[in-house]
Amino acid sequence: MNDKQKGVVITTENRGVFFGYVKDDSECPAKIILLKCRMGVYWDADTKGVLGLAATGPTSGCRITHSTPEATLYKVTGIFECTPEAVVAWENSVWK
After folding, report:
1. What is the spatial distance between Cα 69 and Cα 76, in angstroms, rounded to a whole number?
2. What is residue 35's predicted lDDT score, i.e. its pLDDT?
3. Which residues contact 59 (CB under 8 A, 6 or more apart)?
4. Residues of the domain holding 28
5. Mean pLDDT by 10 residues, the chain (96 residues)
6. 86 inside domain
7. What total of structural domains would you count in the chain?
8. Has residue 60 been placed in a domain?
9. At 53, which CATH number?
10. Sign (positive/negative) of CA torsion 44, 47, 48, 51?
11. Residue among 9, 2, 40, 54 at smallest CA distance from 23
12. Do 39 and 10 touch, CB atoms closer than 8 A?
């Protein structure tokens, strides 16, 4: 990962919600490859939805998986750039 890569939240056709750093989006929306990919399995009302995950990141009531070094996601429906605050929250999230 280089310093120019930004954290993003990705949504998929099958209602998946993921965070990571884009490695390759040359075939998007058919597929995208993310580095340090994490999945948002559950987010509480305090998060204020998927855009809240990109704006402020997951809260303590969310369920976020561990990261995987690289993941290929298919059927992308949305790509939302994260704020620096959201990136820190995603990176520090722990499943509860």
Report:
1. 19
2. 97
3. 43, 44, 46, 47, 89
4. 7-92
5. 76 97 95 97 94 96 96 98 97 87
6. yes
7. 1
8. yes
9. 2.30.30.100
10. negative
11. 2
12. no
Look up the pTM and report it.
0.92
Per-residue buried b or exposed e for 26-59, using 16+ beta carbons within 10 Å of the residue's own CB: eeeeeebbbbbbbbbeebeeebeebebbbbbbbb
Tokens of 36: 């340090």
DSSP state of 30: T
Q: Maximum Cα–Cα distance for the chain, whole Å? A: 35
In a domain, 2, yes or no: no
Is 1 within the bounds of a domain? no
ω before 84 within 30° of 0 (cis)?
no
For residue 1, what pLDDT is reported?
Answer: 46
